[in-house]
Amino acid sequence: MNSDSESAPRAPAPVIGVTPADLDRAAAVILSGGLVAIPTETVYGLAADATNGVAVAKIYTAKGRPSFNPLICHVSGLAMAEELADFSPLARALAARFWPGPLTLVLPRKATCPVAELVTAGLPSIALRSPKHVAALGLIARVGRPLAAPSANPSETLSPTRAEHVAHNLSSKIDLILDGGPCERGLESTIIAPGESGAVMLRPGALARSEIESLTGSLRAPEAAQGVLAPGMMRRHYAPRARLRLDALDASPGEAYLAFGAPPNGVSPSLNLSIRGDLQEAASNLFAMLRTLDETHSAIAVAPIPGAGLGEAINDRLNRAGALSSQDGVREIR
Ligand code: TXA
Ligand code: MG
Fold first, then answer.
1. In CATH, which superfamily holds the domain spanning 243-333?
2. Of 106, 160, 205, 254, which shows the fewest CB atoms inside 10 Å?
3. How many other CB atoms are there within 10 angstroms of residue 210's CB atom?
4. In this predicted structure, what is the pLDDT of residue 324?
5. From CA 146, how far away is CA 153, in angstroms rounded?
6. Cis peptide before 100 (omega within 30 of 0)
7. Burial class for 234, CB neighbours closer than 10 Å (0-12, 13-18, 19+)
């Protein structure tokens, strides 16, 4: 299967500064679907246009992330954020007090939110923050869209706090590195889910608990909070209502067929994750296509997906969704 885009050697990414001309160049890369490492006040982020699913899939490939852990969306401020998520009065007060700054808010994703499904990994929530860094904000303003950006490090390694760290580890996998000097905070943002019955701290980070509690009252731990989604702790991923049959080489009557690459002889696919057999494209289509087929079919047959590269994560998610849909009524992974 063709997965050249994941393995082909590439020239090292240029390291440039953060002048207005540099930010114009970075914005052009982002708008053409590329990856740019950006300084923030916490750690360097690996940014892509959050509304472009194929670009977002490249983040997972570059980081070698084993699964579709949801990503934080970086916004210019409250106005952009309110187009993506529903803000309660408490959420609005937190944003007003701490943005721009190292606070990430996990909020209900709006039905009209234009962010790619892959960013939120099929969750009904979205993580948002406005970074307190003139270059990051300048880039978001130029792009005019939210930027999806996890920390710019290979999965399971230390987060980068200088451009050199990024260049050392990811240079051949990304398109451009903006060197804004060392990160002021050097520690990732604090992640909070402000709920109906108080706020939950999903990840301690660069903004101290006490500062947040001055607004929220006592922050609860995720384990104590019912129904709060914290990937890595209490996982909840989208699983279709429809029964899934994996590694399928045909479709039974009534089954939708979700193809990958050339379909088997005689099978006419309902949808194709990637006609050219590209795992990045398939990853970016996965959640959206399952959702579409789920609306019209009670059973979905899914073509075999190669296990290499992003295929591991795609198969992981399909296996979970398939296992769950065989147990009536159970739709959550914890
Ligand atoms: O400071 C930071 O937060 C840095 C800079 C680049 O902004 N970003 C960062 O991203 O640390 P990352 O991907 O390494 O960590 C994001 C965390 C993950 O643990 C993920 O599970 C969680 O945010 N997360 C994202 N979306 C979520 C959601 N909808 N619900 C709960 N947790 C979410
Ligand atoms: Mg990280």
1. Threonylcarbamoyl-AMP synthase, C-terminal domain (3.40.50.11030)
2. 254
3. 8
4. 52
5. 20
6. yes
7. middle
Is residue 330 scored above 70 in pLDDT? no
Task: Tell me how far CA of residue 104 lies from CA of 9, 31, 107, 127, 144, in angstroms.
Answer: 35, 24, 10, 6, 20
Mean pLDDT, the chain, integer: 87
Distance in Å, CA 200 to ligand 1 centroid: 15
**CATH no., domain 3-222:** 3.90.870.10
State the virtual CA torsion across 207, 211, 217, 221 in degrees, nearest 10: 30
CA-to-CA distance for 174 and 196, rounded, in angstroms? 40
Name the residue of 36, 71, 183 to mutate for ligand 1: max ligand atoms within 8 A of Cβ: 71
SS3 42: coil
Q: For residue 112, name the pLDDT band (cuts at 50, 70, 90).
A: very high
Gap between the Cα atoms of 266 and 248, Å rounded = 13
Which pLDDT band, with edges at 50, 70 and 90, does 222 fall under?
A: confident
Q: Where are the domains of the chain?
A: 3-222, 243-333
Ligand 1 binding pocket includes 195 (Cβ within 6 Å): no
* 131-188 pLDDT per residue, tens: 999 999 999 999 999 999 999 988 877 779 889 989 998 999 999 999 999 888 888 8
Cα within 13 Å of Cα(244), Cβ side:
27
CA–centroid distance, 72 to ligand 2, in Å, is 10
Kindly give the interhelix angle for 279-296 and 53-63, rounded to the nearest 10 degrees.
130
Tokens at residue 187, please? 């520690």
More confident residue, 236 or 306: 306
Cα 29 to Cα 139, 147, 177, 225: the distances in Å are 11, 12, 11, 41
